[in-house]
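Two proteins, back to back. First:
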Amino acid sequence: MAAGPDVCLSGWLTSIPQLAGAMCHVVDHSIHQQQQVLSCVGSGPFSAKRLNDRELKFARIVMFTVEEINRDTKLLPGLSLGYRLYNGCGEEDQIRAAVEAVNGEDSKGCADQIQALLGHSASGVSKAINIILSPLSIPQVSHLSTCACLGDKRHFPTFFRTVPSDRFQVIGLVQLMKYFDWRWVGIIYTTGLYSAEGTTAFAKEAEKEGICVEYRLPHSDTNVKFPAIVEALRKSSSKVVLLFLPLSSTQSFLSNIEKYNITGKQWVGSEAWITQTDLASDGRKSLLQGAMGFALPEASIPGLGEFLLSLKPSGEPQSAIVKDFWESFFDCSFSPSNTSATCTGTEDLSTVSSDYTDVTHFRPENNVYKAVYLVAHAIHALLQCHNGSNPTTGKSCVTKDQVLEHIRYMNFTTQSGAKVLFDENGDSVAQYDLVNWQIKDDGSVEIVNIGKFDSSLPEREKFKLEDNTRIVWGGNSMQVPRSVCREPCLPGTRKAINKHKPVCCFDCFECPEGTISNETNSPDCLICPPELWPNEKKDQCLPKPTEYLSYKEIMGALLTGIGCVGIFLSLLTSIIFLTHKETPIVKANNSELSFLLLFSLTLCFLCSLTFIGRPSEWSCMLRHTAFGITFVLCISCVLGKTIVVLMAFRATLPGRNMMKWFGPVQQRLSVLSLTLVQVVICVVWLTINPPLPRMNMKYYKDKIILECALGSAVGFWAVLGYIGLLALLCFILAFFARKLPDSFNEAKLITFSMLIFCAVWITFIPAYVSSPGKFTVAVEIFAILASSFGLLICIFVPKCYIILFRPEQNSKRHLMGKTPPRTH
């Protein structure tokens, strides 16, 4: 806790002389009458003065501790400590204290110079004093100067303190902000050393953790700029305000701010004022409700409370300071007056409410207690020296800076259990209580410990909240206040820093297509692997949906149904032909090839079903080879029938007997040989590079096409080319035979069927190449079904019609064209 040059909080300096042996016994139990314990407040460092009862308390603790040490027969046997108390509120007093620390010969005749100086409360004053003491290697121990700047051993080599450095408080405050996710805060500070240095350090440390300061408003006791502070508080969007102020400035700030209706703020205080319950006047209770901050840990010092309350003017008859404080405490006067009551000197201090009489909790008081014991233990260490050296530290005990050297290596525990040791900067171990202001129904203030900060613990354990502790929040909030410049970028978006704004006021952009972010405030969006695709929120990659022609979807079911109808019609036609195989129309159309053609058409309809469903290794190889072989079998049968028609016509001509060259045996061999060529092509295809299932992730970004890769494109087009060649040949031969003199010329029907077949497959090629995904398969199935139905309908439906509905035309005479013409 400290103040700058414009606000001097503390009012005393303590020097403790080191006494050589038992001959030099100095005990001064009085506070010198000519000195005063004052607090200086104003624009200048000493423009106004008032009594500071907290500093009186600190001075009395020094007296209490010295007496306790002198009663201890083990710590300094044969020695008694003495002390001098100085007013540290003026430049003259600072210089006087420093000069006497160097050359002062006390009134008791002890010629040794003062070897240690305790104080000051204010960082700025301690800084000025140490500049004088450092060249002389005289140690200075402060109980309340917390400015981190004093830890710089290059400039302040003889400075030590029993209070933690503000660098630890700053770390604790940043951890507090981070824990509650307060990323957007405001700061009220003063231009004094303590406040200015502390807020600067806080801003730097906060920036490392992504916490931004919206504003830093300087407050002064002149209140000239206070309306601007109020306006900034009202317009600000941050809900958390850090009051990094010394005690007197906090009193001034709160006395002014209570006049304005500032609500909805979570006040966070520095340890300078966070435990001062006397700040909570009636107008400030609602304002300070829920305030929190780090405080020095509580300590138990047996007998101190009774000692403080035992102060009586009669015990210090020569001290004008005690009389002044007594008159201030009881609003009376030792000099008779008509305007005030007369002091008796027997009034009870326990009835007074002030910093001095508050003996229920000892926080900064313990630092004064430890400071006195520190010097006593250093002297004790000197007494343990043997033959000019200390066996513990190995340091020389005969140099001028012997006390300084021993203080540097002190490590002990006081009777109250407080541990005292210093790091390389002369700073003690930092331990804080996180406290919360809770205003009770009766209006009293309770400072509740809700957490701790301990710099000696591992990094992740330094700050922690107490379990099952009720926390009251500022701004009448029922939950943790939210204080951010911009809400975090949710998963599915990325965080982008805006150059023209603080880092906390970032922008959030939705992740581009195909990318995700799976954490809050992600700086980048991650590209999903090829087989995955972002969900709608773009916060995770999910397996891409697979697309293939399924039996369950409408198109797949429809094509399956059409294929089944084709199978049914083929079987039905076969049954009709089988039951009427002895009729002229069945015999005349080469019944053996007709049945083989119907069988092959049935296979064609069946093979269309292999194209539907999830592609697998066997289905990919089966679908293309089965399609190629069955269609060649089908076209071979049609070609055989066409050749039979032509041969039959040539056989009827005089002197021609062509049928002996293309009888049943030749017909079977031709069909078999033509089909075997396709089988060979398919076997070679399957052997060299067969069609296999493949996941096509290039056509669509958000889904996978499950398809059968052709493997060898040459093999696929060889299969289709061979089918086309046979179909073209069959079409040409049927076209030539279309006008043969027969009343039922089958060549005409074959011509129409081949015309449909060729038209379908010529149209299939561009449609197949351009169709995406499952539509490629659908086009191929449609081509198979259309060409199969073309053959079935054109070749067999007219015959079935005659068989079933025109039985009179199912005669040899009618087929030979010898039926008499109709008469009308």
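And the second protein:
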Amino acid sequence: MTTELSLRESEEIQGDILAGFKKDNVSVLFLKFEDAARARDWLRRITPQISTTRQVAEFNAAFSEAKHAAGGDDPKSLTATWLGVSFTYEGLRMLAGTDPFPTPPPVGGGLEAFKDGSAQRAGALGDTGDNSPENWLFGNGRNQPVHAVLKISADTERDLSSAVEAQRIAAAECRVLIVYQQNAQTLLGSRRGKEHFGFKDGISEPGIRGFDRPNPSNPEEQDGHPGTRLIPAGEFVCGLENDQFSGPLSQYPEWARNGSFQVVRRLAQDVPGWWSQVAVKLRELKLAKAVPDTATTEWLAARMVGRWRSGAPVCKHQDRDVPNSPDAAKDNDFDFRDDLEGLVTPLWSHLRKTSPRDGLQEAPDKPPIPAKTLDGRRIMRRGTPYGAPFDPASEGPGGPDDPRGLLFICYQADLQRQFEFIQADWMDQPNFPPNRDSGTDTPAGHASPRPLPGKDPVTQEAPDVDFEHLGPDGLINHTPVSFQQFVQTTGSVYAFMPSLSILRGLCEGRLTPVGGQTGGQTGGQTGSQTGGQTGSGTTTPPKPQPVKAYPCDEFVSVPDQYRKGGQSRYWAFHGDLCRVISVADGTAHTDRKVEDDTWLTTWTCLQGVGRVDCVLPVPDQQDPAGKSWYWVFHSTVGRQQYRLVSITCNGGRYTTALERSDRDLTYWGSLSGVGQVDCWLPVADQQDPTGRNKSWYWVFHTTGGRQQYRLVSIAGGPGHADVRERTDRELSQWSSLSGLSRVDCFLPVPDRQPPGGTCEYWVFCGQSYRRISIAAGSGHPDRLVDGDRTCDNWASLG
């Protein structure tokens, strides 16, 4: 990766901001925290799953290359599921246990807007009447507050459903409430890439300096995208280099570095109402001789938007659309210098109201303002349509009354300077461009905005637009046209999307970075961490702050410390951390923490692993006094993979090594159709450590949004051939698991594992655990020994 594109390598910036998830299927969960400690437990659980810019950028590049090689078809075998998380002001304050702004933020700036929240700023943005917060489905600041926003994006509906179900379970286990869930999906067929009014969306996104490759012949533009200007990354990511007109970098608190402020809005669209209005207004304009007799509803609608349905700009294609021209559909190589009066592309069109380009004048007699001057107003949009496309013949999905619209999401470094300014001072301002009184943005604006704090009141409330056209005498005529609003705000939230190191800090209740972009660790000692410099010259991250070790991900027995002197030691994995615990033999099974948490990055064999899902010891490769081998299952870039690792015991020190790098689950024939392996449970009387016979396992996995289990076998020898011995069954088949919808992991009760007899296990699920037994022999009957108890009873996990 070249230095000029260093932002593509960032593992600090969340992936949706600069790279963009770019998935067909999206779900946004609006969350409320009931308890700060449990909210931090929830965040600790999901942080390793949060997508980084590097992950998303690498996937998007591979996807584009595969799509090009396939002649334009999406590669079906290349999929990923991405997660991004952001927090409102109240959410940050609750997680950090302190006010994010020890002193009040500057009046009238973006930090004040973030603290105020979207509902408090609603009147200033024209969100009044039907658009007012009292009618919102989320973010209204009254009923259920929103503390966090979790965005989940996937290539397939099945993958999205599975990921959403997993996140719903994770939230429920930590008493995090889902206030509202909004699903969205790219429209299919000829509507692909369009919003519900039928127009191509997302064409005018800016390029990003340091992320997108510049055009060699014009470094100010993105390579392969003529007319797309490269904007400084600091306009979207706090603390990075920004435009000279955007203010000092010092305006941001330290916790904002490498993060971005997010706007999420649910914009309902009345599609039949809007098109019916276009037809009515066309007749009015024809009667006024303001448009050609040949003008159609498509002709007028294109002028309202500034582009035709295909995305082709009206300024280049004045008479008709060119739907079969792929170049025209993504054309940004134009400005409005030759149309300053708006005779071709009206001044009140959505395109000119949201991005005036080189066609903006301070007054009609002034020269146009250079487009570069307006770079500090740009936003990064990541919206997706929701609801079924309008079908006038449908009485169900797709019918006139069926909810549909745009799930609008954008990122910026300053909420007031960028989103609010575009909405209130450009789109909703009848007198923008200045001294023209041209009218408001007809497709997406509000008819009668209110002033932002410190702004002069808007005196003209009429929603008329000035339709300018040339008369027979060659002079400009003005025809007023009144448009009603057919886009309604039904929910809105201001949030902040932190860097990965700040996320890790919030897991520990503080708004300071933890970890960050560090290099790989050297050495191989597990269960402990050293400070200072590693052998590679990179600084190790600071030691984690004390946290609870549950929900538990996995327990792995320390090879040479099993039932030694009546004590058994285990590595307890939770999130991106691991600690060493011990459990004593006997009736009480007293447990204690032996070593504090360390980052997974202190394990040489776990570099690049954000979270361990489960571990399976290779059955014929276990040498307690020497080298033991393990398959480690973990989720990376949205899908689960596994790797082969080894742990070598050497007098109380443990050296780890990566024996084989990550592979997909498809290498396991026994796991065909499995979405994610959650845990393995050996069939106790069907284990052969010599490898001469098969070893059998129950595999618990989440597929299609619910957990099931199957029976598999693994043979000894170099290939370790695996076979699915029995198809999937529901957890209800286990009487001992009654009432559970999933199992996180099993921990064998160390002195209750008699060969060929009845074995006992602790079963962990979220914040609770229970104790069960499984008998040897035919059917392996199971029973509940002790009912559910809180994990607080484990001293070693507290």
